[in-house]
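Figure-free illustration: sequence to structure, shown twice.
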Amino acid sequence: MKEEENVSIQKLQADERPRERMLQLGRSILADTELLAILIGSGSKSKSAIALARELLTISGGLNALARWQVEDYLRVKGIGEAKAIRMLATFELGRRFPLDLSRQVSNIKNSANAYEQFLPVLADLRHEEFWVLYLSNANRVIAREKLSQGGMTGTVTDIRILFRKALQWHATGVILGHNHPSGNLEPSSADMKLTRKISEAGKLMDIFVLDHLILTPNDYVSFADEGWIVSRDTL
């Protein structure tokens, strides 16, 4: 497919234009560059939408990184204005939300991988830390998934009282903790370990057990239960 920077999409042959290719061949056949070009819509005076899409992927390092961009990141790319930036953010946000309802179909949490699937849609693409909790029934069925706190790049403050107040409201007998490390480092900090122990000890007094604590990055996770860093009522 032609991708000369100064050639607009309108001047390409019909079978070379991303929209026409999608109509004729289906969406799965299109390259990432073509799909982004459709979202961008129109290029600038010096670059086509396809060239801008390719530049976005090159500068960001790929779709996973691009999904974490904010408006100001897009505006640094010549040819991307506020309207295009907002359109891109909205698209990635819809993609992030899509798995949310699907993940709720898990009847119960059997292992750390199931818990990871629940946390991934809400934590994977963030550039700041957030602390989330899965509230579980006695059969490890997910009753609710809620954000407990939000912080910066290196940490978040968690109020244990709010955690257990919500657990009582949901009549939960178990919880699974989850937070992300935007740095990509899966190693728990001393604060992570201390907080987990503190929540676990408080939970035992209330018969609300901490079954696991997951630290997530966009592509991986570590489970406190799997690593033997936490001992609880059940083994996931």
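We now fold a second protein in the same way, so the two outputs can be compared directly.
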Amino acid sequence: MNVEEKKENSAERSRAVPVLWMIIPCYNEEKVLPITCEMFLDQLNSMIRAGHVDDRSRILFVNDGSSDSTWEIIQALSRRDAHFIGISQSRNRGHQNAVLAGLMEAREYCDITISIDCDGQDDISAMDRMVEEYRKGSEIVYGVRSSRKTDTWFKRATAEGFYKLLHCMGAEVVFNHADYRLVSKRVLDEFSNYQEVNLFLRGLFPMVGFKSSSVYYERNERLAGDSHYPLGKMLALAFDGITSLSIRPIRLITTLGFAVAFFSIIGVIWSVVCYFLGNTVNGWASMICIMCFLGGMQLIGLGVIGEYVGKTYLEVKHRPRYIISERTGSIYCRDHCENEKKKSYSQEREAD
């Protein structure tokens, strides 16, 4: 058996029984984490017993600079069960950066990852269907809400409007999909080449390509604690998504500018004709309205362009998107021991 055949056989085995890492971002989740951690562990053990995933699978909690006891809870969980591991960011950097940190941490050890929020709202049992889609050949499996009947009218209208707006603005997103998704190591390796500082993961992964599919599920109520995504953060995320993935707003401003200029020329011609016909009347109100309209359009245009300039400014500085300050769990202890052994062995060789 040659090297290529061995690689193909190894890939087939990993797809049949993949090593799964669940990526769970946590920010001030001390109320809900003790509840949902048992749900995640039960789901993982169930998948291991069924032979759907390997026993080397892990549940990776990413502490996003929490100010409560979230990190202490994660440390205690990792001491209790080897399937729990955790990393802690040096400070709060936001949900998208926390998910990215977990994905990049996991890709060296796993065949697939499933990112899911800590609050227990996403249907955990949908993971079985996600893994099944992966075994059928999908490299990305999107968890998509089948309905929004648990949302208020305002929440449903704003959320669906959010996805429609992103689509109209040229951002390629999956409707009613947030950050509950399965991603293979193959995709993560390619995704690591994307170096954007302004992250909008649900719009970036469709850009990577590869075969994808969707799994539909019902979303539940939050089990405990408060939501960390109020309306303000949702609007900020929507604006980041549009400006990070599309230049259509600038093109719309350009088109609107030409339209305003066209009607302005018509207005100038009309005013000159009226002047020579003697039909002019000194109109203070109309002049103020025109000035306010044009001034407002100019400020809006400058604001949108300034947003793109600001994002370009952040990108060119190329600051790190996340910094991991601490790690906990059996896999990191093992790696540390192996590194210490290698270091000791190298020192003995040098001494000889």
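Summary for the second example: Residues 340-345 have pLDDT under 50 and may be disordered.
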